[in-house]
Amino acid sequence: MSSRYRFLMASLLAGAMTTGSVSADVIIDDFSAVDDPTPWPVVISTLTSVDIYENGLSHVIGASRHSTIRATFLEELGLDFVQAAIVPNFGMILDYSSTAGARGDWNLLYDNDGAGLCADFGAITDIILDFARFDYANGQPLPIVVRIADTVNVASLDHALNTSGPQSMTFCLADFNGIGSVDLSDVQSISVFLDPGVAVDFRLSRIYGVPTPSSMVLLTAGTLVFVGGRRKRNLLN
Q: What pLDDT is attached to residue 212?
């Protein structure tokens, strides 16, 4: 095998896998894409919850986002507050903050405004949350629960951020409780529940699914066989 041929195969393998891994990501919510921020911000200074329904979002799976923001603890009613917003910050970003005497949570639901996603996650291995910021205030972690459901069954996985700064949190689908009962070829809803502590700030920039690399490896192997076969025929001619 010539050095030129070995270089060609290596280039094809690297190029195909790099292109596939980037283009095949399934965007669940890209907060950096700009849409109308009219409902935001939400500021809650009483023990209550607020629901916000957004539709026609081109950068969101199912084109809709249902946010439920709650204030679960307020040391001084009317003074302490929870603030939630999707705000301009190099585009848009999900931003949450609470005062020193306040605690709340934020649930994000993606279900095509109740009609169901009908999404095929059969090739997805991980769901990843990219955080632009987490302050880890007073040593309090940020618990996160991701749920994925078909028409009948639900699977879920809990994780928690426990270091400050920008970071990514990976939820491996194989680790979800009940994932064996969920039809991943017909996913109807995905939810992300964020439950920060008192006086915690965080910013979330993107939620997305990552596909298994095996399909790209098979595709690349087929390409290399084709190239190799063509070279052998050329040598015989």
A: 81
| Inter-residue contact 132 to 193 (CB < 8 Å) | no
**Could you please report the per-residue DSSP string of 99-164?**
-TTEEEEEEEEESTTTT---B--TTEEEEEEEEEEE--GGG--EEEEEEEE-SS-EEEEEEEE-S-
* Residue pointed to by tokens 């292109």: 19
Cα separation, 220 vs 11, in Å, equals 11
Beta strands 154-161; 201-211: pairing state: unpaired
| Interatomic CA distance for residues 102 and 99, integer angstroms | 5
pLDDT single digits (tens) 192-229: 999 999 999 999 999 999 998 754 454 444 444 444 44
Q: Which is nearest to 50 in space by CA: 80, 31, 72?
A: 72
Rounded-to-5 percentages of helix, strand, coil across the chain? 25, 45, 30
pTM exceeding 0.70: yes
Q: Which CATH number fits domain 27-212: 2.60.120, 3.30.70, 1.10.150, 3.40.50?
A: 2.60.120
Residue boundaries of the structural domains of the chain: 27-212
